[in-house]
Specification:
Layout (H helix, E strand, L loop, with lengths): L5 H5 L4 H7 L5 H6 L2 E4 L9 H5 L5 E2 L8 E2 L9 H5 L5 E7 L2 E7 L11 E5 L5 E11 L10 E7 L8 E3 L4
Antiparallel strand pairs: 1-4, 2-3, 4-5, 5-8, 6-7, 6-9, 7-8
The structure holds iron/sulfur cluster (SF4) (2 copies).
One iron/sulfur cluster binds next to helix 4.
Amino acid sequence: MAEIPPYLQRGYITPEELFSIIPKPGEERLRKRPVAVPECPQEIPCAPCREICPTEAISMPTPNDLPIVNYEKCIGCSLCVQICPGLAFFMVHYVGDKARITMPHELLPLPERGEEVVLLNRIGEPVGKGKILTVVPREKSRGDTPIIVVEVPIELAWEVRAVKVVRE
Ligand code: SF4
Ligand code: SF4
């Protein structure tokens, strides 16, 4: 029987592990426009991301295969982030010394545009503060999930995968 990789055993994946199974977009591409990166390492029968992509940038020969994005074909439309039932798609865009991360946000409250939020890593630990740039509420999302764009320090681009709203 095949050995279960450590990231499936522990329930989250590190950036190093992720980029050992899918390609990492280059810096030039990351600065050009938002690029979608799937963090979907489990071979499960699921393919809405591939079906919704308007440029056929997501390759997945069978629904059990891992999604692989052709970063040059990705136009940064965010539909894969909106539709993914596993909340596994993110977009990353480098702008100056910041990174803009597009991510699903299912928890309430929904942050507001311009709001400062606590940045959380993949295991929910706070790693810094960021600013909300865009909010797409549930009723405007193609899936059932609101999405947000948060600006983070560039060195946290591959760590931040959720935010926490803290209001007095
Ligand atoms: S962001 Fe849009 S173009 Fe890029 S992979 Fe996702 S659905 Fe396709
Ligand atoms: S829709 Fe989400 S969970 Fe399903 S294959 Fe695509 S990335 Fe994975």
